[in-house]
Structure formats: structure tokens, C-alpha cells
Automatic annotation (TrEMBL):
GO terms for molecular function: 7-dehydrocholesterol reductase activity. Its main location: endoplasmic reticulum. It is an enzyme of class 1 (oxidoreductase). It catalyses: cholesterol + NADP(+) = 7-dehydrocholesterol + NADPH + H(+); 7-dehydrodesmosterol + NADPH + H(+) = desmosterol + NADP(+). One of its GO terms (cellular component) is endoplasmic reticulum membrane. This is 7-dehydrocholesterol reductase. It comes from Bemisia tabaci. The chain crosses the membrane at residues 12-29, 41-66, 86-106, 113-139, 182-201, 208-228, 248-267, 279-298, 373-391. It is a multi-pass membrane protein. The keyword tRNA processing does not apply. Belongs to the ERG4/ERG24 family. Keywords: Cholesterol biosynthesis, Cholesterol metabolism, Endoplasmic reticulum, Lipid biosynthesis, Lipid metabolism, Membrane, NADP, Oxidoreductase, Steroid biosynthesis, Steroid metabolism, Sterol biosynthesis, Sterol metabolism, Transmembrane, Transmembrane helix. The keyword Transmembrane applies.
Length: 421
């Protein structure tokens, strides 16, 4: 075993599991300006009755929504020929959940402040649930795998690495996709719902004297709505779905880290409202909205090229330049994929990530006037995550497409920022 393999499989997993699990709970103290003590940490980590009820009801709502009859999306086939199915009701789920949330708030106006106050207990309960679910996925993958051996469901012999990475690629729970349940439904919508809770709590405590919190909320709503529109056209071909297994990294990260860390700035604004000017608020809103629209357009261009029955497509007023990349799938069959080398995809190979980074910055930019550094933890984390994904994408594309990827790189030499990097 090489040094890299030893660190990758035996050192990183336990360190990351301990660090991020503990960090997620500790960060819930920051939004209330409350000192951290061992007794309070242990108390909050176990949750309370109300937190467990809220969590159970939300999981039930998310699960039932995936069960209602709706159009389905077929994901990329596994080597065994199995084609995973996903519910194509993301936009309906988005608006239905907001309607239910609005009704509950109108009936209980004090509900937002109660949940804000209960945030440490809520994340304690969620983290316990997520860890137990990861254990179940590990045992299920080892003892009762759904996937055929040729699909790659296998253990490494290192228990902590299998727990961290996951065993199965597309497992199901109660008849629905685990990844769609956890990432697309629970995690993304919890991110928005908690942003709404913290916004309402801020307004109830401080009034509408801080317009920047309005622009921050609008940006999150636009971003999540954009995701649900994109979900049915391209998300199930993404790295998360096609390559990452269902383990701690993806599952706990989506259940706990995403809704917790990604709302940390809004959580802190309740106790430390930002005092940015209306002009700066408008600037953030325009810049963030433009970047979100750009990510949607970039994703749409790829969808347009790949879904068109012919290559007679125009991008930015010019005929689309497309590389027909041949590759061999896991079953040994020859296939062809379309690599877009014009439009926004001709400016940089991962220009969608560039727009994502701008969005990330506008989420937290108001924090400069809140008197705390906490809101600025999000952009560096997401930029590091994006750069990590970028190099993973590049490596996998090079392995998959070979000379066709080299040709694409020669036509589109910049990875992220046109004419710079």
C-alpha cells in the first residue's frame, strides 16, 4: 500500500468524520453568541422532543412526496443494465413545501423564533439520524446489496473507509432513491427552509431595518428553484449521482452539513444583523441573480446539445462546435458522447463552476457589516470544494474520453476563468 493510499483510506476518513461531525454541532453555538461548554454540547447533541418531532415530520413529508405518482427520469444505466428511476416533481415539491411552510407560519407566527432557538438541538437530532442512516447503508451494502457485482458495489476491507465513502452507488430506501431523497429533497429544501426561518426571526427581532437580509434570502430562493428546474434535465448525470457512493461524505454531508453550514451566515444574522447599505444590498442581489441565471444558461446549453436529435444547433448566434467523443463503457460497449466546445462551454471547461463561485460570494458578502467573521466561512469552503470537484472531473473525463478529451482541452484551454486559469 502506497503512502497516498494509506492516508486516503485510513487517515482521512476518521479525521474527517470526527472533525466535521463535531464542527457541525459546535457551529450552532455561533449564531446565538453562547459560550461553548461540554455539558451544553452533550445536551444539544442529543436533541429534544420538539426537534425530533420536527425532523420526523419533515422526513415523512419528503419521503411521501417522492411516493406520489409523477413523471419519472431515467438515470445513466449501470453495467448490469439497471437504470435508476427518479421522480421528476422537484418544482412541485418546491412550491408545495413553501405553501405548507407559509401556512404553518401564519397559524403560528412565533414558530420561526422557536426553531431558531432550537437550532443546536435540531442539528443534534439530525446528525444522529444521519450517522445511523450511514451505518445502515454500510451494513446493507455489505450484507444485502441491491446492485450486481459488475455495478461495482464492493467493500475495500477498510471499515472506516467504506463507511466514509459508501458501498453502493444507487441504493434505495422505502422504494425511492437514497440520493434523491437525501440530496435533492431533504438537503436542498432544508437549506431554503432554514434560511426562511432565520430571515423571519431576524425581522421579528429587528424589523425590516436591514434590507441586505432580504436580498440574501431572495438569492437562496432563486438558487434552490434553479436547482429544481435543472434537476430533471441534467442533475442525474452529475458527479454526485454517477460516481460518488452513498456514504458519510455524501449522505451525512447532505443531511447535516449542507443545511447547517450553508445557512450559517443567515443563522448569524439573527444575533448579528448586517448593516450593509441598501445600495450594496441591491448590488449583491443583481450580481447574485445574474450569476444564478448564468449557471442555468450554461447547464441549459449542455442539455440542448446533448438532447438534440441533430447537431444543427446554434449557440450565441453561431453553429455549435461539438466533439463526438467515443468511449467504451463498463460493459465493453462502444458509445459516443457530445463535448460542447462553443458557447459558454467554449470559454472555459468548467465555466459553470466560475458562476457558482460568484453566487457563493454574494450569499455571504453582507456579512462584512455584521461584526463577525462567521458568514465568511462559506465562500472559502465552497471554493475549495469546487476546485476539488474540478480536478476530479478533469481526471475522470481524461480517463473516459482519452484523445477526445485532449482535443477538447486544446480547443478550450482554460479550466475555470477565461484567459486566466
Amino acid at each position: 500500500m502506497s503512502l497516498y493510499e494509506f492516508v486516503h483510506t485510513k487517515i482521512v476518513p476518521p479525521v474527517f468524520v470526527i472533525f466535521f461531525t463535531l464542527a457541525a454541532q459546535l457551529l450552532t453555538f455561533t449564531g446565538r453568541n453562547e459560550p461553548i461548554t461540554l455539558s451544553s454540547l452533550l445536551k444539544y447533541s442529543l436533541g429534544n422532543t420538539q426537534a425530533w418531532i420536527i425532523l420526523f415530520m419533515y422526513i415523512l413529508w419528503v419521503l411521501l412526496f417522492l411516493k406520489i405518482p409523477s413523471k419519472t427520469i431515467t438515470g445513466p444505466a449501470l453495467p448490469s443494465g439497471f437504470e435508476p428511476k427518479y421522480a421528476a416533481n422537484g418544482v412541485l415539491f418546491f412550491w408545495s413545501t413553501l405553501a405548507v411552510f407559509g401556512g404553518m407560519f401564519l397559524s403560528r407566527p412565533d414558530w420561526a423564533l422557536a426553531i431558531y432557538t432550537m437550532t443546536p438541538e435540531l442539528f443534534g437530532a439530525t446528525s444522529i439520524t444521519a450517522l445511523l442512516f450511514c451505518v445502515w447503508l454500510l451494513l446493507k451494502g455489505k450484507l444485502f446489496p441491491e446492485e450486481a457485482p459488475e455495478d461495482g458495489a464492493a467493500t475495500t476491507g477498510t471499515l472506516i473507509f467504506d463507511f466514509y465513502r459508501g458501498v453502493e452507488l444507487v441504493p434505495t430506501f422505502c422504494g425511492v432513491s437514497v440520493k434523491q431523497l437525501v440530496i435533492s429533497r431533504f438537503g436542498c429544501m432544508a437549506w431554503l427552509l432554514l434560511s426562511l426561518v432565520y430571515f423571519i426571526a431576524t425581522v421579528q427581532l429587528h424589523g425590516l431595518s436591514y434590507p441586505i437580509v432580504v436580498s440574501a434570502l431572495i438569492l437562496v430562493m432563486l438558487y434552490i428553484l434553479k436547482f429544481y428546474h435543472y434537476e430533471s434535465t441534467g442533475y442525474y448525470d452529475s458527479l454526485d449521482i454517477c460516481f460518488d457512493r452513498a456514504g458519510y461524505y455524501l449522505i451525512w454531508g447532505s443531511l447535516v452539513w449542507m443545511p447547517g453550514f450553508f445557512t450559517l451566515h443567515a443563522y448569524n444574522y439573527v444575533a448579528n444583523p448586517p448593516r450593509a447599505s441598501p445600495l450594496f444590498s441591491l448590488f449583491c442581489l443583481i450580481l447574485g441573480s445574474g450569476a444564478i441565471a448564468l449557471t442555468y444558461r450554461i447547464d441549459y446549453e449542455k442539455y440542448l446539445v446533448r438532447s438534440s436529435p441533430s447537431l444543427n444547433i446554434s449557440l450565441h448566434g453561431k453553429p455549435a462546435e461539438v466533439i463526438l467523443a467515443e468511449y467504451t463503457d463498463q460493459k465493453g460497449e462502444k458509445r459516443t458522447s457530445r463535448l460542447v466546445a462553443s458557447g459558454f462551454w467554449g470559454m472555459a471547461r468548467h465555466f459553470n463552476y466560475t458562476a457558482e463561485m460568484v453566487v457563493d460570494i454574494t450569499f455571504s458578502a453582507p456579512g462584512y457589516s455584521s461584526g463577525t467573521i462567521i458568514p465568511f466561512l462559506l465562500p472559502p469552503f465552497l471554493i475549495i470544494l469546487i476546485l476539488h470537484r474540478l480536478y476530479r472531473d478533469e481526471r475522470k473525463c481524461k480517463e473516459k474520453y482519452g484523445k477526445y478529451w485532449e482535443l477538447y482541452c486544446s480547443k478550450v484551454p482554460y479550466r475555470l476563468i477565461p484567459w486566466v486559469f
